[in-house]
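Shall we go through a protein fold together, starting from nothing but its sequence? Label the sequence line and the structure token line clearly, so we can match residues to local backbone shapes. Would you write everything just below, so we can both look at the same thing?
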Amino acid sequence: MLKAIEAVEADRAVLLDICRGLTDEQWQAPSGCAGWSVKDLVTHLGNLFWLVVDAQQLPDTTGVPTERAQEDGVVARRGLSAADVLADYEKVSDTGLTKLAELAALDFELPLGEDFGTYSTKVIPRAYAFDHYTHIRADLFAPRGPLTGQAPPSDELRVGPALDWIEAALPQQNRSAAGECTLEIQVTGTGSRRITFGSGQAMATLRSDAPALVRWITGRGSWAELGVEVAGDEAALAAARSLKVF
């Protein structure tokens, strides 16, 4: 899991550099996450590290669905200034990287909520790599986000762990769809691989590069918008449209 932690470290450095150059207007601008400003988005990424550093710093969301719990955590910290949010992220992520490395050195199953799934502690750093990869590139930068210019690279270091998380989370976070279809997801370009969803003979195939896969599997774009090539059984493809990873 060292690669996943290296990916988080790299994107943490990128995010800190981006945030240090933001204007007040950019901090308050809507991000690619509906209802969240750029400040909210950075708050969320800091909250993820608080989960492994000291979860008591966040609202008690026992039994609450994952995405609602994340929203509650952001709302609870909306009173912080942008400078405080950035300082909080920088400090907690530094400690959090150490905690992630400690988790990766262990090997036990960690339940993270009925809708989120249960994973080996070795896998957890991949979730952090995936979140950073997605939020920075798809939610901070255009076309969904407010920032212009070139987004950070989608190189093997960052793409690999993000795809690893998708592959691990896909069956647990889409149990009903797994009973309806078997798919082969073909990833082209950087991080190329084949991901099988469901069991048995593939009923349909979906083909895209990794950045497009991350966007459609998180509901940030349609297949047509992202140039995803699809073929196969229409019922299986209909089930595939409901897939989501977070």
